[in-house]
Design goal:
Blueprint lengths: L2 E2 L2 E3 L2 E3 L3 E6 L6 E7 L2 H20 L2 H17 L1 H11 L4 H21 L7 E2 L10 E9 L2 E5 L7 H12 L3 E5 L5 H14 L6 E3 L4 H10 L3 E7 L2 H10 L4 E5 L5 E4 L5 H13 L11 E5 L3 H13 L19 H16 L3 E4 L3 E2 L2 E2 L2 E4 L6 H4 L6 E7 L2 H9 L3 E2 L1 E5 L3 H10 L4 E4 L15 E2 L2 E2 L4 H7 L1 E9 L1
Parallel strand pairs: 1-5, 8-9, 8-11, 9-10, 11-12, 13-14, 13-21, 14-19, 18-19, 21-22
Antiparallel strand pairs: 2-3, 4-5, 6-7, 7-25, 12-24, 15-18, 16-17, 20-23
This protein binds NADP nicotinamide-adenine-dinucleotide phosphate.
NADP nicotinamide-adenine-dinucleotide phosphate binds next to α7 and α8.
């Protein structure tokens, strides 16, 4: 029987006045009936979160940390169930889905630890002439109600990157997950409820971004919008949010430079993984590869060899590497981008075809700089390989992008590694690995059109707190 889900407001599970059918992106089958939150539901959720601020304030740091630790324990116990939710709602292949839950557990564990590290500092007031006889210190206070808007691609772990730091710092949250991935958000709420989070501290509302999302973005009681998603929506949120604080974690067309290689097969394996895991629907997916000319032939052959072992199919099967994109229209767009590149002179050296919502892992070469696959975010299993002669030329090509999230550089030269760190315009430079590398406590975020602000628990907690100064006139 298909389950009928409820939204979560003020610690209560509620029916919606209307609902929609959530369909599997892979099979098209109805997976669950999901309630639509009305405007009144959203306003009630905000009010509940506002009232719950006092309950969060009453918790000690230890209690907040213990709740987050219990959340991690509960995810551990329900790992397989959570992974299966992902295969259903966003067609993430089981192996990758388990990987996401393992990271989610780690994210909540980091949050439990970081809750205990939120400190202020003593200010040497009398270092100024006018500061004689004064004692000053800072403390970090929670902002209050946080509006969290999350995307479909890592719906457990990216929600954890909002809820973990928000609760670790003593805030309350109204969460709006992507319409295609509400099951993971509701499961998360169930887990927080079991872990003893005070009623009203977490509210999950569901509905179209332009409606529910807009209400959160413009509501005066929401002090910060923490958003992960596309550039287009990020710009809309920025335009509508006025003076409200915003953290915007947006997209990218990430690049890797391969300048020299001790083990070219190992690098090719990592590039295949970075470009095609979860069908390229990862914000730091490898989309552009710049390789020194003399390495190209061996490298491209090594990539093709690895891809021969990749399987396309049902996300719920253990052996599947690539499954459906989130919507068929995204697969049609990817096919269109391939066609555009080929018409402009590109060659396909692997894949290139679409089967319904599935796009084959595709490698293109000889793509002119102006085509979509070079300039925009693919969010599909497409990667381009370019060759170069000079390292400086590769850096300049990497920077020729509206985005700047992370970049990878393979080099055995320390000088070139530092040159890359200095010159590449991104939030993170990864030496001797792909740009897709991420662990959940590191500072993570972009420059240029990849966004503003940083996640990684400690850094997100800074965004989610206000610095307050206290001065004693002794
Ligand atoms: P999206 O279309 O921008 O949607 C993200 C969220 O915003 C969803 O919950 C969506 O709701 C909501 N939304 C849509 N329109 C809105 C509006 N006008 N006001 C407020 N909220 C609105 O992104 P997506 O397709 O789910 O995710 C893919 C994008 O996320 C890619 O660009 C990817 O690079 C980026 N991403 C970035 C990071 C990072 O950390 N930098 C991580 C993961 C993903 P509906 O689902 O109801 O439309």
């Amino acid at each position: 029987m298909i389950s009928k889900k409820q939204m979560f407001i003020n610690g209560e599970w509620r029916q919606g006045a209307t609902s929609y059918e959530l369909k599997s992106p892979f099979s098209g089958e109805v997976v669950a009936h999901i309630p639509f939150s009305t405007k009144d539901d959203v306003l009630e959720a905000i009010e509940a979160a506002k009232k719950a601020r006092e309950k969060m304030k009453a918790l000690t740091v230890l209690e907040r940390s213990q709740i987050l630790g219990r959340v991690a324990d509960l995810f551990e116990e329900q790992l397989e169930e959570c992974a299966l939710i992902l295969t259903q709602e966003n067609a993430k292949p089981l192996i990758a889905a388990r990987g996401e839950i393992l990271r989610t557990i780690e994210t909540y564990r980091f949050a439990a630890e970081e809750a205990k590290q939120l400190t202020g500092e003593m200010i040497p007031m009398d270092a100024a002439k006018g500061g004689k006889g004064k004692l000053g210190f800072t403390k970090r206070e929670p902002l209050g109600v946080i509006g969290a808007i999350t995307p479909f691609n890592f719906p457990f772990n990216l929600v954890a990157h909002k809820l973990g730091p928000a609760f670790a710092a003593g805030n309350t949250v109204v969460l709006k997950p992507a319409s295609q991935t509400p099951l993971s958000a509701l499961k998360t709420a169930e887990i927080f409820e079991s872990a003893g989070l005070p009623a009203g501290a977490l509210n999950v509302v569901i509905g179209r971004g332009g409606e529910v999302g807009d209400l959160l973005v413009t509501h005066p009681d929401i002090k910060l919008i923490t958003f992960t998603g596309s550039l287009e929506v990020g710009l809309d949120i920025k335009a509508k949010s006025g003076l409200k604080k915003t953290t915007l974690e947006l997209g990218s067309n990430s690049a890797v430079i391969i300048d020299d290689a001790e083990d070219i097969q190992a690098i090719a394996d990592r590039c295949v993984e970075g470009a095609f895991t979860y069908a390229g629907q990862v914000c730091i997916s490898v989309q552009r590869i710049y390789i020194k000319k003399d390495l190209y032939e061996t490298f491209s052959q090594a990539m093709l060899k690895t891809l021969e072992g990749w399987t396309i199919g049902n996300p719920a099967e253990e052996t599947t590497n690539i499954s459906a994109l989130i919507q068929e229209k995204e697969a049609v767009r990817a096919e269109e981008w391939i066609r555009e590149a080929v018409q402009a002179g590109a060659d396909i050296i692997f894949g290139g075809k679409r089967h319904g919502s599935i796009v084959e892992p595709t490698i293109l070469v000889n793509t002119p700089a102006h085509v979509s696959i070079n300039c925009n975010e693919a969010f599909a299993p497409l990667v381009v390989i370019h060759t170069y002669d000079q390292f400086e030329e590769a850096i300049s090509n990497v920077n020729d992008s509206q985005y700047g999230l992370q970049a990878g550089v393979y080099t055995t030269s320390l000088e070139k590694a530092f040159q890359a760190i200095d010159k590449i315009e991104v939030g993170g430079v990864i030496i001797n690995d792909i740009p897709s590398f991420r662990v959940d406590q590191m500072p993570y975020g972009g420059v240029k059109n990849s966004g503003t602000g940083r996640e990684g628990i400690k850094y997100a907690m800074e965004e989610m707190t206000e610095l307050k100064l206290a001065v004693f006139n002794l």
